[in-house]
Write a sequence for this structure.
């Protein structure tokens, strides 16, 4: 069975600090990987995705993530966070032919202080 | 393009009742997935429908069911409600039916409270 682990439950940063959120997954086959963000009071939005090709993927709002197959990891990064990045971030995995099923991590709450 | 819409946005029900939630996918999207989000369990997959057929089902009891109509709109039903069914129910749609792992676009959810 697939599983996803996000290392940090709550991360607190000051504006302009760099961000890295960890995500590890467990699945033996080909995977598609996603990061979603949920801003306060808003619905889940897709930040970025990895299907194949260049393991470094860029998303919206300056976020990027790197897929490291040997480590089963897909960490999210941003060089300089802003107060508006305060949100909950979810890593998700789709594996094999499990139609329509994303397996999500528990989420990381990011709080950015101005 | 309009996003995924879900109705109603909020519901309060009593234990033992049943409830039906509705989801309208993004125009042109034919795959609809449902998730339950709770503070304790996080986001958990309920089921997925494509072309009116359930292609995948998560690990939930039979009280949870769904269906999809020919216009791709979907409903989910929960019968004999329990207190533990209180959650945010999310619907997501996807545009690429042949690609099982396409990205999903989420609606705002229906907040169900069971008393």
């Amino acid at each position: 069975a697939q599983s996803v682990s996000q290392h940090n439950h709550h991360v607190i940063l000051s504006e302009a600090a760099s961000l890295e959120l960890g995500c590890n997954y467990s699945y033996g086959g080909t995977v598609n990987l996603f990061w979603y963000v949920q801003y306060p009071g808003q619905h889940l939005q897709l930040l970025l995705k990895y299907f194949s090709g260049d393991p470094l993927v860029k998303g919206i709002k300056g976020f990027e993530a790197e897929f490291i197959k040997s480590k089963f990891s897909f960490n999210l990064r941003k060089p300089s966070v802003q107060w508006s990045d305060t949100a909950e971030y979810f890593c998700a995995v789709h594996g094999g032919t499990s139609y329509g099923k994303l397996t999500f991590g528990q989420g990381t709450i990011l709080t950015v202080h101005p | 393009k309009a996003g995924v819409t879900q109705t109603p946005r909020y519901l309060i029900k009593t234990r033992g009742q049943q409830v039906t939630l509705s989801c309208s996918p993004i125009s042109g999207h034919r795959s609809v997935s449902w998730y339950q989000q709770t503070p304790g369990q996080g986001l958990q997959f309920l089921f997925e429908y494509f072309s009116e057929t359930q292609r995948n089902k998560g690990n939930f009891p039979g009280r949870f069911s769904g269906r999809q109509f020919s216009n791709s709109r979907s409903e989910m039903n929960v019968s004999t409600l329990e207190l533990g069914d209180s959650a945010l129910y999310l619907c997501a749609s996807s545009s690429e039916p042949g690609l099982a792992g396409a990205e999903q676009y989420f609606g705002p959810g229906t907040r169900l409270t069971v008393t």
User: Anything to note?
Assistant: The CA atoms of residues 48 and 56 of chain B lie 5 Å apart. The interface with chain A takes residues 31-33, 35, 42-45, 47-50, 55-56, 58, 90, 92, 94, 100-101, 103-109 of chain B (CB under 8 Å). Chain B has a mean pLDDT of 94. The radius of gyration of chain B is 13 Å.
